[in-house]
Each structure stands twice: as C-alpha cells, then as structure tokens.
C-alpha cells in the first residue's frame, strides 16, 4: 500500500513509517510531497494520507499521529507502548513527559539537517527507531546518567531535598546553580518525572517545589522560556537564519519555534527580528 505525508520529516513522519512497516504494512511505500499536495496526491495515487490536518491519521488533542496509529491498529507490543510517549514528547516539544524525548528530538533534528533527501532520511530514521525499539524492549532498566552534567543535576536536587527534609529553612544556592546549568545546556532536558524516580521523591512534590523557585513556571515551560531568551540573543547575529536559530535553541521544527516564540514575546520571530534591528 502507498502512504503519503508532508515533505521534510523529522519525528512523527519518520516514527510512523517505522511503525507502519513493522506492525501494519510490511510492504508499505512512503511518499513525501509539499503540504498542499498531500490530500490531492493521496486521491490521485490511492495512497493513505497521514500526519496532516483534516485526515483520519493525524494528531488528536495532546497526542501525535504515532499514538493514533497504535490505537487504531490495536498494537499491543509493550515496547511500542513505551516508545509512544517518547515520540509524542519529541514531536510536540513536550520534553518533560519523557526523559528520552529530548534525545530523540536532537538526533532527529540533526539527521534531518544532514540528509536533505526525504527517502534517504527515512532509511536512516528506520535505523534510529529500530534502536529505540531494542532499548524499549530490552534495555530500559539500564542507567544512562553517565554524563557529568546529569550527575551534577541530580546532586543539586539531592542536596536541596536533604536540606528540606532536615528542616533547614534557609534556601541553599541550588536554584542559582541549577539555572546556570540549564542555560549552559538549553537542549539537554531531564524530566521531573524521571528525576523523582532517581530521588525516590513524589513527582508532584518535586514539580511543586521547582515552580516556586523558577518564576512560577513548570520545568518544561522554564526550559522553553530559556530557549526563547537564547534565540533572541542569536537574532542579533545576521549570519544565523531563523531556521538555524530554531535548531540551535532546541525546537523540533520551525512551526514549534514560531508558536512558542510568539506565545512568550507576542511577536513571531521575523517580526521580532525586524524590531530588534531597528533599535
């Protein structure tokens, strides 16, 4: 069967073909076309459209097309179930819902940047999702907090939690330290849910304490705010295009970057940059 979607895939439009080929249609042929041609070409080629508005196989509420395919085709595989929130978090720029979401986004964005041919990109993406599936099926219990930054972040939280449990009323310097680390690692995210497991602390408690000391923002919202502030700094350099800035500040694609930028600043990126250069 032929399946058709938008060109220039990054996450959902690579994850869905992997899922389709592995669990739904092993002989699937995938076609990538410009956005406005998906539905007309689907009719002309008798292909199944996916991951575009106003078709059946698309986003619903907070869930992405990968989620809908899992439900529609009643895929019960436990590893696929584990992959779903990772794909969802990466595709919808909600890296706080899965510790692996930011990593999947980073790899996918880099892959798309390096490979401009969509079918070449698809074949490379298949390898990524094969690897993610193997992790989900066999390696989830393996610890991956091996980077110095991750250990340091956990250490900061541990010191904070210990000071609270011991009844100390004076706030330690962890908040300033954590802010500096986040600024240095804009595209490296750990979810509070995952941190709560490592710390053996109720996740709702940890989330509540975080927002008190970070501008009354959730972990995810605070990261997005920091990314926009970094984007504004980069806009001063004309050598960076808005597409470059979106990549460098950790957004899954240009539409995510534009939406979050406008939500925080009130202007879309191009409008803001014009105002910036007029000053």
Automatic annotation (TrEMBL):
Q: Can you name one GO molecular function term for this protein?
A: DNA-binding transcription factor activity
Which residue ranges does the record assign to the HTH araC/xylS-type domain? 176-275
Q: Which UniProt keywords apply?
A: DNA-binding, Transcription, Transcription regulation
Keyword DNA-binding included in the entry's annotation: yes
Where are the annotated coiled coils located?
Answer: none
**Short name of any one Pfam family annotated for the protein:** HTH_18
Looking up SUPFAM superfamilies in the UniProt record yields: Homeodomain-like
Which named protein is this?
Answer: Helix-turn-helix domain-containing protein
Q: Which organism is it from?
A: Chitinophaga barathri
Its taxonomic placement starts with: Bacteria, Pseudomonadati, Bacteroidota, Chitinophagia, Chitinophagales
């Amino acid at each position: 069967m032929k399946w058709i979607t938008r060109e220039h895939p990054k996450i959902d439009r690579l994850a869905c073909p992997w899922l389709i080929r592995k669990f739904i249609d092993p002989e699937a042929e995938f076609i990538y076309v410009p956005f406005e041609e998906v539905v007309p070409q689907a009719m002309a080629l008798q292909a199944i459209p996916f991951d575009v508005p106003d078709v059946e196989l698309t986003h619903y509420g907070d869930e992405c097309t990968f989620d809908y395919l899992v439900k529609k085709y009643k895929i019960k595989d436990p590893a696929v179930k584990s992959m779903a929130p990772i794909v969802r978090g990466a595709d919808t720029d909600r890296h706080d819902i899965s510790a692996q979401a930011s990593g999947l986004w980073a790899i996918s964005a880099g892959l798309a940047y390096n490979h401009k041919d969509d079918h070449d990109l698809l074949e490379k993406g298949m390898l990524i999702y094969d690897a993610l599936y193997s992790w989900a099926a066999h390696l989830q219990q393996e610890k991956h907090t091996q980077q110095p930054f991750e250990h340091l972040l956990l250490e900061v939280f541990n010191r904070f939690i210990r000071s609270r449990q011991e009844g100390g009323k004076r706030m330690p310097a962890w908040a300033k330290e954590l802010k500096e680390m986040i600024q240095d690692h804009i595209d490296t995210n750990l979810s509070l849910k995952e941190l709560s497991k490592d710390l053996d602390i109720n996740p709702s408690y940890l989330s509540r304490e975080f927002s008190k000391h970070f501008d009354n923002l959730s972990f995810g919202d605070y990261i997005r705010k920091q990314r926009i502030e970094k984007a504004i700094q980069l806009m001063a350099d004309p050598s960076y295009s808005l597409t470059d800035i979106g990549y460098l500040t950790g957004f899954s694609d240009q539409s995510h970057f534009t939406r979050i930028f406008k939500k925080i600043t009130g202007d879309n990126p191009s409008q803001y940059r014009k105002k910036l250069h007029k000053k």
